[in-house]
Write a structure and sequence with these properties.
This protein has 79 residues and is an alpha/beta fold. The protein is built from five helices and four strands. 47% of the residues lie in helices and 20% in strands. Strands 3-2-1-4 form a four-stranded parallel beta sheet.
């Protein structure tokens, strides 16, 4: 079986990626969450979710903060 990009993401996500940035939710915002945000920010609409309110920090970083349920419901990809 030959693996390609569609094998991993599925056809619907590939088509959406061609038209717009996908919504990526990062659960937790420790060292790894901040690191991955810096790398992926140019390629995705990023939303973070964490127990504490990080809305001010998210705003400063040019990303979104949302409560867990909202962040998950609106995500195309969850990390």
């Amino acid at each position: 079986m030959k693996l390609n990009q569609e094998s991993y993401l599925g056809t619907s996500l590939i088509k959406k990626m061609e038209k717009q940035k996908l919504n990526l939710t990062i659960v937790g915002f420790g060292q790894f969450g901040r690191f991955i945000t810096g790398i992926l920010k140019p390629h995705f609409n990023i939303t973070i979710t964490i127990k504490s309110d990080y809305s001010e920090l998210a705003k400063k970083m040019g990303i979104k903060y949302a409560e867990f349920k909202t962040a998950i419901e609106n995500a195309d990809i969850i990390v």
